[in-house]
Amino acid sequence: MLAAMAWWHEHTLLAFDLETTGVDPFTDVPVSYALVALQDGVVVGSDAWLIDPGREIPAGASAVHGISTERARREGMTLGFAVRRIADALVDASGRGVPVVGMKLDYDLTMLDRCYRRETGRGLVDAGFCGPVVDALVIDRHVDRFRPGKRTLRHLCAFYGVELEDAHDAAADATAAALVVRALCERYPELRASSPAELHAAQSEWHREWVRSFREWRGLGPLPDSCWPIAADGRGTGARTAV
What we know:
The protein is of the alpha/beta class and 243 residues long.
């Protein structure tokens, strides 16, 4: 008898995360990154390094992720080299159809896109990146819209039974977010039955609807259509919140 066909989340996933100088994806820059390959929920490869951001790391940011300016300068690769390295990996994954997974990836990808533009004069899409992107937060907001409480990575891990071993370490956060995505697929059959490309398109709409609903709840005015997962300007993505 033939073995049952594996669902997409049981194949290769590339988990991505940045730790940064701050919470603004348009002006802040990375201080570490992680690209973690998983196969059926097991880590099979990891590329994770410190980055010298070429500027002072604010004390508040260092208090969160534990990376000081001195350590980044001493141990980190240059920002330009890191940005190109990450972009190359994401473009390669996109070309192979490997889903890029994580938590609030509009923040990470928008920051990377801005850094890449400053380094090369072109964006990630121009370089060939087109997803698919699968975001734990966007999906969780959609499938369990009215659940009360916070939805940080730490809270999602607790809710879906995923261990977060070292919060604010890029590799640990990336891996945990990928496992939350897998848990979501196990809990909601419609997610694993959709292709990653279909989920990518759906998440763009889910994110737009969440932004509209959130602004309405806050009594804010209408917002022009935003791009997801890479925002064109400051209107399409929010600052990252604490884990």
